[in-house]
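Thread: quick sanity check before group meeting

JM: Hey all, I'm pulling together slides for Thursday and realized we never actually wrote out the predicted structure for the chain we discussed last week. Dropping the sequence here so it's in one place. If anyone has concerns about the input, flag it before I start.
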Amino acid sequence: MSAFVFFAVLAAALLHASWNALIKSGGNKFTSMLIMTVLQGAFGGVIALFSALPASEVWPWLLISALFHSGYKLFLSYAYEQGDLSRVYPIARGAAPMIVLALSGFLLSDLLDTLEVFGVLILGLGILFMARGAFANGESLRLVPFAFGSALMTAGYSIVDGLGARVAGDAALYVAWMFFLDALIFTPVCVALRGRGVLRSERQDWSIGAGAAAGSYAAYAIVVWAMTQAPIALVTALRETSILFAVLIGWWIMGDKMDRGKAVAASLIVIGVALTRI
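JM (edit): ok, ran it. Output follows.
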């Protein structure tokens, strides 16, 4: 991996942590997340409008993926209403690869090597410590199931998108349609869960939503490009530094409480994820 690609992936990790921080900082997490989703859906719709329709066998993958993406953002929005960025993000981000590895063993018949098993054990230990911290520090206990729900949705769309994009044969077109369908699903679900008030937005909500949409898209684009320039395993391991970025942003910028337990837990999660992907 060249130095340029290395720092580009680090930038993508920072962008991912930053758009999560933007959503967390908003007054109404659901409104900000909805604006982000609508803007991404509009961008995807423009691309889809000037492209051929996906083949019939691709549509089930797109629909399932859109459902998972919508579920991911719903759980994440609920989690950020209950807990700090530096507590929620490591659990939501760190548990996802562990779930993917477990499901891959059952659904895809992938065998784990010794290093991956060791990584999963360290990862699980870090997540356990991070979740325990919420209980020990008197934080809202509801953040834990919501963060794990977000991780489960992330694991779901990671597997579905990996297989669906192969069926589609065109990753860019697949992602564009997925973003479009995601917006169509997420919008009415938000209204149903939070009422029409979720549609009322202020200038700050649009600034946050637009910034999150740009950060999310840019982070995704950089990682996809990096995977064409360097080994995929190295790229995916390096991008998990976003967990440390989120913890630091939460601590230095957003005033999250930091203690030794949280720092150790976050470090274990990063190490565990890296070991499962090297």
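AS: nice. The mean pLDDT is 84. The longest helix spans residues 143-168.
JM: adding both to the slides.
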